[in-house]
Structures are given as structure tokens and as C-alpha cells.
Amino acid sequence: MNLMKRILYIILFLSITIGQAKAVDYNASAFGCVSDGQTNNTRSIQAAIDLISSKGGGTLNFYVGRYLTGGLELKSNVTINLHEGAILVANPTYYDFIEKNGKRYFIYADQQSNVKIIGKGVVLGQSAAVKAKIEGQLSKGLINYTIETARPTLIGLNNCQNVEIDGVMLEDAAGDIAHLDNCSNVSFKNQIIRSKGYANSRGIVLNGSKEVSLANLYVDTTGKALVKDKTSQTKEVIKSVTPDGKTI
């Protein structure tokens, strides 16, 4: 092997090694996250996401327990791994959800890439508790929305690329389960998507989004399982059905 080839191999090896080094695992508890279902973990979880992204990326691991949290913003190169028995529970207080352009979200990402939510855990929207909180704010005249427009979406992605949501159960949204606006290369797979506590809670809503893959999904919602505008395109829909056995 001549000198030039050796140099090229060394450069390749170093680039792979550095890339692997960035894929660091972090434990949510190390950031002060508490899985008692009562402690509000919003600041701790968001600080963890921000730090991991700033360091080039990695995986934030949640183990058995109920992690109560307000709205969270996902960042590039960060993987959220909800291990079996781990539940991200939405804090039902209306103002704890993330507000963007007059809408509210539990989990949100804007112009981010290489984001993942994976595992065997659950993202839980607590629709009944959220509805009660919204109705309380409406009755006091503190918000200027109808209850239909005030309901938060479980997951919102705006102008994002290379997003993977795999394995986790998405459940009990007060609004829709997922909104994708102007996104590309997004996949939902190996999931139960269920939202039965609130009327017209839709499954996956696509606006101006392309290369969206849906595989091995069971979608049981009070609204439509899949909604897309004329500019959106699904790359593939594989073994993804509603309770009556129809393809979404």
C-alpha cells in the first residue's frame, strides 16, 4: 500500500471514529429528571436535549416511570429513547404546551434534522385533563380560542428532515396525533397510534410534506387516520391499518 492510500485510509478511519464518538448515550436521570409522575421535568428534559444537540448529538434514555413534562422542542441529531415502561406524560396546563403560530404542541421541532423518537415506551397526551384545563381558561375568558382550535397536537414537525418515530406508542392526544408541515424523509413505523378520548382527534396530518413512510402502524383515532393535502406525498404505506382492517 502506497503512502497516499495509507493516508486516505487513516482519514476514513478517523472520520468514522469521530462520528461514532458523537453518538453518546445519556441517562435522563443524570439531568435531574424524576419519574414519579408528579414532578414537572420540562426544564430538565429540555436542558438535556439542548446540551446533547450542542455536543454533536446522542441519545437521551428514559427508563421505567412516568415523566411529567410540559412542551418539549426537539433538536438536530438527538434521539429520544423511551425504553419499555417509560412514559412521557403531558402536563395538562394549557400554557405549558409550546405555542407556534397560534397553535400548541406537546412535542415540537422546527427546522431540525436527524431526529428520532424510538423505543417501546409511550407518549401520553392526557386528553381529558387537558380538555378540563382549556375549558377552565375559556370560562374565565383568558384565552380567545374555541376549544377546537385550542386543543394541542401531540407531535408537530415544521420544515424538518430525516425524522424517525419508531416503536413508541402515541396515545390520547387532546388534538391530533401528529402534524407535519413542509417536512421530508419522515418515517412512522412499528407503532400503535391511538386517540379515543376526544372527538375528531386525527392521526397523521401532512401539509406540504414529501417522502413520508408509514409502516406497521395500527391507527385507532376518533378522526381520520391519515390526512394529506394535494402537495404531500407518502413514499410508502406498508401494513398500516385502522381497527376495521382498512389501509390508512
UniProtKB/TrEMBL annotation:
Q: Which GO terms describe its molecular function?
A: polygalacturonase activity
Q: Which InterPro entries match?
A: GH28_Enzymes, Glyco_hydro_28, Pectin_lyas_fold, Pectin_lyase_fold/virulence
Where does the record locate the signal sequence feature? 1-23
Q: Does the keyword Magnesium apply?
A: no
Provide the alphabetized UniProt keywords. Glycosidase, Hydrolase, Signal
* GO terms, biological process: carbohydrate metabolic process
Q: Which Pfam families match?
A: Glyco_hydro_28
State the family it belongs to.
Belongs to the glycosyl hydrolase 28 family.
Q: What is this protein called?
A: Pectate lyase superfamily protein domain-containing protein
Organism this protein belongs to: Sphingobacterium zhuxiongii
